Amino acid sequence: MPSLGGLLKKRRTKDSQTLSKELPQANSDRSDHSSNPDANPDKAEGQGASMQSAEPSQGSSQHHAHSSNNAASINNLINTPANAGSSTQSPAHTSNATPSTQPQPQSQPRQERTTRGKYSQGDFMLQRTLGTGSFGRVHLVQSKHNHRFYAMKVLKKAQVVKMKQIEHTNDERRMLNRVRHPFLVTLWGTWQDSRNLYMVMDFVEGGELFSLLRKSQRFPNPVAKFYAAEVTLALEYLHHHQIIYRDLKPENLLLDRHGHLKITDFGFAKDVPDITWTLCGTPDYLAPEVVSSKGYNKSVDWWSLGILIFEMLCGFTPFWDSGSPVKIYENILRGRVKYPPYLHDDAVDLLSQLITADLTKRLGNLHGGPQDVKNHAWFAEVTWDRLERKDIDAPYIPPIRGGQGDASQYDKYPEETEHYGVEGEDAYGHLFPDF
Ligand SMILES: Nc1ncnc2c1ncn2[C@@H]1O[C@H](COP(=O)(O)OP(=O)(O)OP(=O)(O)O)[C@@H](O)[C@H]1O
Ligand SMILES: [Mg+2]
């Protein structure tokens, strides 16, 4: 029996199975919904690796979120101007075209991307793997044109088809292409060869919030509040654009070099004007209306925000079980949450209004929308407009010392041996028309 510590260090993978009209007895079928790690050779390999290297390679020299250097304080949430910013540049630009790599001034209006084009493997030099997930592998790559570093997500078409993820994968590309927000990762372009789909995004250098949280065990109240507030703004933006995200978890929250969040992995993001029925997400984070396959909407992201805040403050998720996802689902449907005594009263109040099965009571899903969440007492110190401009210092600055392309904040994974860019017979290309 693996220890609690060992299991908590493991990255959690998605659970996805379309519950359509063919599966009306959703509750009795729940055992079929568990994720199957072995179905994906990438994932089995990646997960194994992250289990074995329980502590990330650079872990011992890492600062912790609550270390004195980066001590979080309420001041971090309300006042200090930050020099954080994002310098975005299309991989096709030559470095001469846009020479500056300096952060942009905060007050500058958001730039429209100049290129969202088609690239090919030949435009990039492949570097190490940054992460693996249920369906994909993400590499660090360097543009041969402007010499900047990017993250390239690779999905095997055969695997996507086998795992019935065609629609989700096309949605991932379409949703990412539509969004533009300081706390969402930027997609620059996509392409496909005979075997794989490729998506090139900004390389977010600071690593996963997951790694920081596991090293810190749990975050002090102001640190959790800072990250939760940035996620809240991102969710507000997505929902405003009728997009539900559906896979909120620390593994998908990356830190930029200034310590601000970037949400990656739009593998389950979906355009949903009203309701949908698909069972997908990561077990610990699924809302009861998803587990019991009722139709659901944006409400599920607010539930997941509650789980995320709980996990940041406590170091574990409220419905966690060392057994199978089915056990987790049973706990979710039972709905009993034990709030540890060290939690602040305001945090418990907010969590109990987010982690509630009653959709008529769930904050974020009520008449006031996301504003109800932002107005909650736990967030009282947050100046939302400044936060959105990244005009507030982050509580933790990732120790990136190697300049551009420093991937030291990411765990190491066994590398992919398959050669990318292979031309040949392509049975599935037509299924991915946008790539
Ligand atoms: N833009 C990025 N910059 C740096 N690393 C990234 C970026 N995007 C993803 N990663 C890394 O790759 C990992 C896997 O990517 P992603 O979550 O998109 O894959 P996935 O297969 O859809 O994941 P899962 O099913 O586990 O949620 C992330 O957890 C992160 O560590
Ligand atoms: Mg992911």
UniProtKB/TrEMBL annotation:
GO biological process: signal transduction
This protein's record includes keyword Kinase: yes
InterPro entries, alphabetized: AGC-kinase_C, Kinase-like_dom_sf, Prot_kinase_dom, Protein_kinase_ATP_BS, Ser/Thr_kinase_AS
Residues of the AGC-kinase C-terminal domain: 380-435
Domain of life from the UniProt record: Eukaryota
Ranges of biased composition (kind: Polar residues): 16-28, 49-59, 80-97
Family matches, as SUPFAM superfamilies: Protein kinase-like (PK-like)
Record-given protein name: cAMP-dependent protein kinase
Region (Disordered): 1-122
Reactions catalysed, as given in the entry: L-seryl-[protein] + ATP = O-phospho-L-seryl-[protein] + ADP + H(+); L-threonyl-[protein] + ATP = O-phospho-L-threonyl-[protein] + ADP + H(+)
Binding-site list for ATP: 153
EC number: 2.7.11.11
Gene Ontology MF term list: ATP binding; cAMP-dependent protein kinase activity
This protein's UniProt keywords: ATP-binding, Kinase, Nucleotide-binding, Serine/threonine-protein kinase, Transferase
Pfam families: Pkinase (PF00069)
Biased composition (Basic and acidic residues): 29-45
Domain Protein kinase: 124-379
Enzyme class, broadest EC rank: transferase
Keyword Cell cycle applies: no
